[in-house]
Amino acid sequence: MSYNEMIESGEVRPPYAMLSDWVASMPAEMRQMKQAEAEALFRRIGITFAVYGEGGDPDRLIPFDMVPRVFMQSEWRKLERGIKQRARALNAFLRDVYSRGEIVRAGRIPARLVYENAAYEKAVVGFVPPRGVFSHIVGIDIVRTGRDDFYVLEDNCRTPSGVSYMLENREIMMRMFPGLFRNNRIEPVDQYPELLRRTLASVAPAKCEGAPTIVILTPGHFNSAYYEHSFLANLMGVELVEGSDLFVDGGFVYMRTTQGPKRVDVIYRRIDDPFLDPLCFRKDSMLGVPGLMDVYRSGGVSIASAPGAGVADDKAIYTFVPEMIRFYLGEEPLLQNVQTWTLWKDDDYKYVMANLKDLVVKEVHGSGGYGMLIGPKATKEEIAKFAELIKANPSNYIAQPTLALSTSPTFVAEGIAPRHVDLRPYCLCGDRVELVPGGLTRVALREGSLVVNSSQGGGVKDTWVLTE
Amino acid sequence: MLSRTASNLFWMGRHLERAETAARLLDVGARITLLPNTEEGYRNEWESLLRASGAQNDFAEHYGDRINQENIESWLFFDKENHSSVASCIERARESGRIVRTALTNQVWDALNTAFQELRQLKARPRAELDTALLTDFTTRHGATVRGAINATQLRNDGWHFINLGYSLERADATSRLLDVKYYVLLPRVEFVGSGLDNYQWQVILRALSAHRAFHWAYGGEVTATKVADFLILNGESPRSLLTSLYEAVWNLDGLTRRYGESVPSTASVSARKTLEQLMARDIDAIFDEGLHEFLSWFISEISVISNAVHDDYFSGRM
């Protein structure tokens, strides 16, 4: 049985007390009207996303559920401490593996997993970015299985997406149900863009004179997250650039403007490492800026997140994060990892292959709910097919138990029903480590489904932290 | 402002104007199919219009000699293969708008996006339900809404100048090309000059520029070649005349020059001003003496020189 965040032992839990009345008192017609209104708002604003490889409508809406997911402040504070602790440890790890590699020398993490990792970037070895921060926006995916049981499912140290939904979901809820916000003390999240701007400004390179010029680097308007890129640029008041808008000259990066070249100090990039600089990485990249990495390494520009930050967030390194927390911070982890079997170990391999029907198996570098097997939901044929994939390359996979994700009340055709949810908060790391009280709650809208990815039929909810 | 942003705003303006030009051609094209089918047929008129929009070969490739209302509508309104069709232009304008979303007000984006969404609905409807008037009304209505939103809500900053520069240069180009139709229509049939047929063709051009009534207000009386040409070339009150369009382009370029100061080159502004002076130095008789086609060819190439200079001055992000 999975944990129901609204109802425990037949009683409505305090965070949902008021919502429970609100839901009960809303007639079905009203609900449909409001749902249609919400959809119209989303479409009007232009928050749509495209699903790679699916074709169809490029302007698809992500389904929005109007029942918020609620945390009490006391619950949130605990989570917050755990998230910040984790973000600090991940950055300490990155600092370490690109310099002396103490954690490897101490034998706490196998060298192979770090230095042979596809995301380990030799081009930045020995380079310490401003304030020693590699990952400036850490998205940590968290699931809940009991009242006090929270687990980290995975870390995202590169360019976690979805924060625009956190902000827009709140905007739309406030616009449609102002009464809810008047009658509850819900902590605001709309300071996020300002905090992000401040965080990025705090890591400006030493060579920057005066107020730093910040830009967001997007792969372009065909990217499925383009809306988010332009949304954040707009709220932060910075330019949204493509690779072709930037060029390198005399040790600095400039953008092409109508008034000639303008120097750029901090690049919040939303493109992957291999595309950043065709001179340094993929030669065929049309998205990047030739020569960017040279400027970066000589301190002429800051890049967030730093190239190479991905080595901290793959699913193989994940199993060692509690170890990092002990090693660098001398603390015990406040948030637990999910038990994980790594298939390159013989014992783990044997166990996993014998128990595929009960486990979730994921690709080490996979994301977005692709390339994974959910044992209990899969057919015999699907399991057999996946087993072949694993056999071909065991070290490409990890396995975890099927977690009983908690449920949050959600509007469905028949009224309201529990649906499984997860949570992605966005932790900002610059001169300080900061977190807005909230995040993106993703919900698996299909009954019984555990997959919350928007690409696989998941939706989103507003996430509240109630002041007590 | 990013060069790419400026360029997208400029092209958004151009495509919005171009969509309206396509709708006007559509109106005229439909009218031509209603003419009595004489020995030569109405093909001559139609081909001249296509030639004016630089597309006679493309049309022939798709529809052969099947010049009928449905094919004309397909080509000028719906066809994606035609880069100047209403649908192509609205889609491109909306795409440019989406890329520079942050440089537009919500009202402008809303108007642009609504045009795009309704266009999609229109495409999904059975063709039998759509008549030409509905399609041209659709285009002019949405064109006016977007235009109105731009004027009412956009900041009067450099972005505004770039949008309007796009509109005015495109309009100057479209009007001169439509006028040039006369050259292609009449070239093999010099004996028609001054005849009833000739005057009818001039009327068609007026109609294509939505200037039919305005012309009568301004000049009254009979439609003659001299009057129409004067109205469309040198009349500063006519909203689509070459003079008005070029004047607006100069005004917007001056705005940019003032805003950006001397550090930014202003070759476009200088060249537009020079062309304007040369235009104003002519009267309509001089233009006919020189040859209408020769004059228009000169003007079209001047507009293209100015457009290239705009690109070099502002969109290249030169060092």
UniProtKB/TrEMBL annotation, chain A:
Residue runs in coiled coils: none
Domain of life: Bacteria
A Pfam match: CP_ATPgrasp_2
InterPro entries attached to this UniProt entry: ATP-dep_Glu-Cys_Ligase-2 (IPR051680), CP_ATPgrasp_2 (IPR025841), UCP005522 (IPR016450)
Circularly permuted ATP-grasp type domain: residues covered: 68-444
PANTHER family: BLR5612 PROTEIN (PTHR34595), SLL1039 PROTEIN (PTHR34595:SF7)
Name the record gives this protein: Circularly permuted type 2 ATP-grasp protein
Annotated source species: Paracoccus aestuariivivens
TrEMBL record, chain B:
Top-level taxon of the source organism: Bacteria
All copies of domain DUF403, residue ranges: 1-315
Protein name: DUF403 domain-containing protein
Source organism of the structure: Paracoccus aestuariivivens
Lineage: Bacteria, Pseudomonadati, Pseudomonadota, Alphaproteobacteria, Rhodobacterales
